[in-house]
Design a protein that fits this description.
Layout (H helix, E strand, L loop, with lengths): L5 E2 L5 E2 L17 E13 L1 E4 L2 E4 L6 E13 L4 E14 L8 E3 L1 E15 L2 E14 L18 E12 L3 E12 L2 E2 L5 E3 L2 E3 L3 E2 L4 E12 L2 E12 L18 E12 L6 E14 L5 E12 L14
Antiparallel strand pairs: 1-2, 3-6, 3-21, 4-5, 6-7, 7-8, 7-9, 9-10, 10-11, 11-12, 12-17, 13-16, 14-15, 17-18, 18-19, 19-20, 20-21
């Protein structure tokens, strides 16, 4: 599966699944279902407190591990439905703070191919995406960086352009605006961004993100190199020597490499592995992320051709 975008903000991120998800230029064909699990390991020691890069011996290394279920269903030639759900657990190598674990947020998305043009030596496709996310459990967001999420509902509007050459090379550009609902704390007041607030409800700034990917896809092998950027539209910085807060401004720039290969047997089974690194940020950890997993594609109609060309649009 292609890029999955569920951001865990300060404590890292679950990376991008490859082949037919919310941000790429691929579509599952009708009556085709791609499903599987991804396993992630995200770790950092240094982080940015505002623009200051530093470490914190009270927590040492912060590790976030995850098991992610993902599924993409080809409904029509132009419409795919996508679902994602992670189980996450966190751990600090030093100090007295205990990690948390649990099911995080369910994401449901619809990707629609808006247009398709033959352009020069290749083809250009445009996609529109609507995605909804909601917490499935009552985890607390007020324990960063060890919280498993931000306990907020989200609605994302995304646009994607994908240009594919006939020799296997392609370029993908995608961007999204994400609205976030307020978060609720288990306390009657809080302090953030120079203000003392008497309320348990926290206003959450919205988020924009964009990414550019260069890929080579030939036969059963897929290789990707991506640059990812997230900017939070508001929020304060972490106070000096303080814990991060749920509504902090959380920006980052990442680079990622990813490979995915469909095995010759059994038909439809693919192995996927990726590595990502945070090169710059604000109020986030300077993390590296390793992910790997298995994806299996089921075709609900007879097809004697074993190639992946009969799976994707």
């Amino acid at each position: 599966m292609r890029r999955l975008y569920i951001t865990l903000f300060f404590f890292g991120s679950v990376s991008w699944l490859q082949a037919q998800t919310l941000t790429d230029g691929w579509m599952m064909k009708p009556k085709t279902f791609c499903t599987g699990f991804m396993f992630g390991h995200d770790q950092w020691k240094n982080y940015w407190e505002g623009s200051l890069r530093r470490s914190n011996d009270n927590i040492g290394k912060l590790t976030t591990q995850s098991v992610m279920y993902a599924g993409t269903l080809g409904v029509t030639e132009k419409l795919n439905i996508i679902a994602m759900l992670p189980y996450i657990w966190t751990n600090a190598s030093q100090g007295t703070l205990h990690g948390q674990q649990g099911i995080q947020d369910l994401t449901l998305g619809a990707k629609y191919r808006v247009a398709h043009w033959e352009l020069g030596a290749g083809s250009l496709k445009a996609f529109g995406v609507l995605a909804l996310s909601t917490p499935l459990t009552n985890y607390t967001p007020d324990f960063l960086p060890l919280s498993i999420g931000l306990q907020t509902k989200r609605v994302s509007w995304r646009g994607t352009l994908n240009y594919q050459l006939g020799n296997g090379w392609q370029v993908n550009a995608t961007g999204a605006y994400t609205w976030r609902s307020n978060a609720t704390l288990d306390r009657p007041s809080y302090y953030t961004d120079g203000q003392s607030i008497t309320s348990s409800e926290v206003w959450m700034p919205n988020v924009i993100d964009y990414a550019v990917t260069v890929a080579y896809v030939k036969g059963s092998m897929q290789s990707y190199l991506s640059y990812l950027q997230q900017n939070t539209l508001g929020g304060g910085d972490i106070r000096r020597q303080d814990m991060p807060f749920v509504s902090n401004r959380m920006n980052y720039s990442k680079v990622e490499v990813l490979v995915m290969n469909y095995l010759p047997w059994p038909k439809g089974l693919a192995v996927r592995a990726s590595a990502a690194y945070t090169v710059a940020g604000r109020n986030v950890g300077q993390s590296y992320t390793l992910m790997g997993g298995l994806m299996y594609t089921i075709q609900f109609k007879s097809n004697t051709d074993n190639t992946t060309e009969h799976i994707y649009e």
